[in-house]
Design goal:
globular; binds uracil; 34% helix; 23% strand; binds 1,4-anhydro-D-erythro-pent-1-enitol
Length: 310
């Protein structure tokens, strides 16, 4: 395996700017950000996005739009936002993106491949727009391990299905293993924000990232399952003992790509259920919707404290 160290040292840019550790991009006359419906020759990216300091990503478009609404109300950003809040991914409907003042919110869909495509283009967008000192946070949902449903987990590190803080990807048919560690200072700040918001528990722990919701997360309720209830519990208990607090499907590639681009990155996911107690997500819709707003309120608090210089 090739480790990240060389890749990280490979790219030198001005402090605070977003790194794009790809020499090819720097020689391209035009860069079309295909899935975002944006491009360097068709859009004035520095004018549209140059003031961005916070990027928040989450699975669904409606949740990210709701997040921007809460942000505008709580931080009185209404003068800097379009009314109605418009989707900036003009002519491509794969992802949605909304902006309010220095905050950009984007949807990433489900799973590592979908998150990866969004982040490649989003990181280049931030680079082309010459943004500085950007913090990127994923807000999402997850399955918890031994936690009361509704608990918010701030990730120390994303870990793979063997509980290691790394992600393997095939590049040119060869295995490349990269670190999935997250920014420790930001994680501590996020935990403090959760406790300041209150009304729910916030914990710090490792987040296991899988490539599937069913067998990949040791569920018994998928269309296919080859293991017993006991084998499921042995695996999930081993994960718990290795420090895994929750399980979701995007944190690994999110951590890797943000690290390689020099972005401060954090992951904040609410737990919808306790996976040691069951597999089905069966709480009423309004309960799940309220749970899903918890990471949003936590991140609004982080942005509020950062902007007010507290
Ligand atoms: C959490 O929830 C989704 C699966 O239901 C997936 O995107 C994730 O990471
Ligand atoms: N998202 C996941 O990936 N897993 C769960 O159990 C719940 C939400």
């Amino acid at each position: 395996p090739i480790l990240t160290q060389n890749e990280e040292e490979n790219s030198s840019t001005e402090i605070g700017l977003v790194r794009v550790p790809n020499l090819h991009v720097h020689t391209m006359a035009e860069d079309v950000l295909y899935h975002l419906g944006l491009g360097t020759l068709t859009h004035d990216l520095p004018a549209m996005f140059g003031d961005v300091k916070f990027v928040c990503v989450g699975g669904s478009a409606s949740r990210m739009r709701e997040f921007v609404g809460i942000l505008c109300t709580k931080l009185a950003l209404s003068e800097t936002v379009q009314d109605p809040i418009i989707n900036l991914c003009g002519n491509n409907d794969r992802y949605s993106m909304y902006k309010a003042g220095p905050v950009l919110a984007a949807s990433h869909g489900m799973g590592v491949p979908s998150m990866s495509i969004l982040l490649h283009e989003l990181i280049k967008l931030l680079h082309h727009a010459r943004c500085r000192d950007v913090t990127v946070i994923r807000i999402g949902t997850s399955g918890g391990l031994g936690l009361e449903p509704g608990t918010v987990v701030v990730s120390r590190s994303a870990v793979d299905a063997r509980f290691q803080p790394q992600m393997e990807q095939m590049v040119l048919g060869k295995s490349v293993v990269r670190s999935t560690e997250l920014h420790a200072g930001l994680a501590a700040e996020l935990v403090a924000c959760g406790r300041a918001v209150g009304g729910f528990q916030t914990v710090l722990g490792n987040t296991m990232c899988t490539h599937d919701f069913y067998e990949g997360q040791a569920r018994l309720d998928g269309a296919v399952c080859t293991y017993s209830h006991e084998e499921k519990l042995v695996y999930l208990r081993a994960a718990h003992e290795a420090g895994v607090c929750n399980i979701e499907m995007e944190s690994s590639v999110f951590s890797v790509l943000c690290r390689l681009s020099g972005l401060q990155a954090g992951v904040v996911c609410v737990t919808l259920l306790d996976r040691l107690a069951g597999d089905q997500v069966s709480s009423p819709h309004d309960v799940l919707a309220e749970f899903a707003r918890r990471p949003q309120h936590l991140v609004v608090e982080l942005i509020r404290t950062r902007l007010s210089g507290l």
